[in-house]
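Shipment paperwork, digital attachment
Item: protein structure file
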Amino acid sequence: MENLITDEALSWIGKSDSIIEVEVSRRDIIKYSLATEQKQDKFLKGDEAPPMFVAGLSREIVSLEELGPDGLAPTNFGPRLPLKRVMAGGVTFNFFRNVEPGDCLVFNRTLTGIAEKEGRTGPLIFVTYLITCKTKNGDSVLEQTQTRILR
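Attachment content:
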């Protein structure tokens, strides 16, 4: 198997993207709760956000024309890699506290791993990120591990 991952690419391990801060309003929680057909009053009244509310909260808002073929906004965070087709490789969540209206959430994404493997149809590159979400006061809200597979 040829080595597709350069030393320059490996030097990205441990680097973090720009910090993103998001203020959560009761209205945001209510809109999300209605859109995702929540049933519990605490969500529908905006007293507390459903757990998955934070999953995409730190994503940049872009027009439809700016979305990539995978439906996501393009990102400039990470090394240039020779394989270009990106697939979801899995996500795990660890929730520590509920999100409430008025919370100011701070997101940080760190590249934690790059590995090459041989698949049935050729080489694959696995890129892993750790996304942390804390309140502005430092209380942990969420840790998300995200893996992307390039082929």
